[in-house]
Amino acid sequence: MIETLDGLPDGVDGFRPVGRISVADYEQVVVPVLDRADAERRRLRLLCVVDPAFTGLEPDALWEDLRVGLRAMPMMDGCAVVSDIGWIRDAVRIAAFLIPYPVRLFGAAEQAAAADWLRELPGGSGFSVQLLDDGAVAVVRVRRPLRVADIAALTATVDDWLRTHDELGGLVLSAPSLPGWQNLSSLLRHVRFVAGHHRRVRRVALAVDGTIGAWAPTVADLALHPEVRHFRHADEALAIGWAAAGVPAGSAAGPAEP
């Protein structure tokens, strides 16, 4: 079975596997947590306590573990694993190199420290995406390197709009400097987003300080469909106004014709 942990900080969910884990355990305990977080558009911070009461997974639960893990991946801010079991610690160290969100190991006596670490993660305050309904402009504000989950959130927001409209009038990136990417996975996810969406965006405004931000529009104009313009970070409002000017008259009033 999988037990849920009580007494954790707000925003932290915890699990403790006990005995041998089955598919039903995932469906009855873990999946509802993902469903609630998805419905609330809430990020996940997971604490997993693995002690000698855990004896492994049923064969069919291996695939369920992978399926649930892939679903949770774009929703994750971080995961803390509490265990003194050698093979668990070795497996987590290997997985941490492949997973596009922070993973940290703690000893069995450090559960409180693990919960505090999760509570103090930067999380969503470093990234936000807002769709301005009256202007069909997506505003992305970033204060840290982009993560896979950030690109997933941006993709979901833009795709929601494009389901009922031909194009997005404008997209604004607002950051003190070009944020870069957390890892290769986030870079590749960003490249896929740009390749799959740039022909349906009219204008891109970069409200970013720094030399790279200033010459980025020149490079972008050579390969991308949108008109791209650079602004100072302090001029975010001007950037939004310019991007909104790319919205065709009446485009935000209703769905596109089939």
From TrEMBL:
Pfam families hit by this protein: SpoIIAA-like
Cross-referenced InterPro entries: SpoIIAA-like, SpoIIAA-like_sf, STAS_dom_sf
Stated name of the protein: STAS/SEC14 domain-containing protein
Species the sequence originates in: Pseudonocardia kongjuensis
